[in-house]
Amino acid sequence: MYFWGQKIKTFHSMLQPCLQFIQFMQRQFVILFQVCGIVGRAELLCTLFTWLSVLSYNQVIHAKNLLHTCVAMFGCAACVTIAMLCKETGITAIGICAMYDIVIANKIYPIDVINFFLCKNSDKRFSNLVKYRATILRLAALLLVAIMLLSLRLGIMGFSTPKFLPVDNPASFMDNIFLRILNYNYIYCLNTWLLICPVWLCFDWSMGCVPLITGYDHRIFTIVIFWLMFGAIVAYTFIPRKDKTSRYITMGLTILIIPFLPASNIFFKVGFVLAERILYIPSAGYCLLFVIGLQKFSAQFSLPKASLLAYAMLIMLLFARSWVRSNQWRNEKLLFQSALNVCPLNAKVHYNIAKNAADAGNIVLAKLEYQEALRLNPKYVQAMNNLGNLLKDIGLLPEAVNLFKEAITLQKDFATVWMNLGIVQSALKQYEESEASYFTALQYQPIYPACYYNLGVLYLERKQYDKALKAWVKAAKQKPTHKQVWTNMILLLDDLNMTEKALKTANEALKFIPNHASIYFNIANILGKKGRFEEAEIQFKLAMSKNPTDPMIYANLGVLYHRWNKLNAAEEMYKKALQLKTDLHSARDNLQRLYSLKASIK
Predict the structure, then answer these.
(1) Is residue 40's pLDDT more than 70?
(2) What is the DSSP letter of 161?
């Protein structure tokens, strides 16, 4: 953008071979894409390697010997491969390279291609093929690379397309093919509008964000106007006038259209309605067309100063929009609120606002937003699950059970809901139902340490200690860093007077969670009860080093010193515990007993 601002007075010098524009885009694409919601590095890396592949292919075109050609072609293929591995749309770089070779390097116009196929003189056709022999070989190499990469990609996917839900892309699931095509075209209009005027920016466009066209709708006129304007631009490239402008427009349309094809729903269904990130590469084609149009406008009406002023105002406007959008990405709350302003009918937006509010402790707002998400999408099982958890936390257990059961009806294999249902049933003392829910969750998701942990807690409440230990052992095997599992096992073994096994379990836990203070704390308590004061003291001090702000560590070390008859050290520990937590009754009571003991000794 800055480059254009400096060169606005010399539009003709900007319309140099398209390679210069691509080099410029490589340097400036980050600035251009700030108007879109950047949700990850994949699209940016894909864009970068797409332009690098075009630059490498330019070296193939101008190579002076076979070695140079092979090296440059290998570099181009490598960049395309990396671009595709970053994002599937990266493979469209091959189409851009092919069109660059045809239109820019060889100056072949669209009308020439039509005349070639309409030509009935076979000798003339053959002579044309011979003339462009090197170009045909390069294009054949590109085609070979494309076939290999497509085979690789399809092989990774198991030669099957991904499965999506109707809420992800409602238009793709419409039975009426005419209405489906009509909605696809309206989505093309919205993508074009986002390029021209990036005002409606949203992190997610699914779940009713864009209402479907199901009959007569004023939006149909938008589609008609779009195709009239776009068709006029395409038709211009077929006018039999061979100049640079025609070739640059063709190249601009190529960069605009080809990278967008994978997201067009033409070849396969995609899992989104709109996604601003898919416009990263096409935006380069739009920018090229915009520059050409501005140059034509300035030359036609002889208004270079007015064009410069209008362009400067546009740059300032887009800069301001970029600034605002960047600020909205600073935190989740701002991002989700901005999405609500754009897509108030999107259930996922309300879901994310509710989740963010719940994390912040705003239970009232979270409950209202989850309910709104379910009103907009009554089959939103994730919202049901989260709202059920929210109701469980505030003590509305029967309501939570009803929500979990409704979610299970909609999605029977949702293991998380089964586990949450089991937790609520356990809280309601419905132990048999709770156990059945946990087992169902494990049936659908065998590797589920959180479920095994909660199953162990259920068995503990039912005093089935052997089963509790077995469940926690399985949880620890599946997730060796699960702190609460190890802590519960150590405490239960200690309560069952299996102290040696408890110590062995604690030492096993330290192999996986060596910085967890609770393990050292429990070891110290066990050793202290066995009268192994020196060893216990070491463990208490290790626990302090891991968590120096836990008052219970100081209080229990004080008890150890108290029993060890190190009264001054015990007094010091009790006082430290009370400094950290003034209402720690156990430390206060023990300190009073210590003072009484000292007084009796005197």
Answers:
(1) no
(2) P
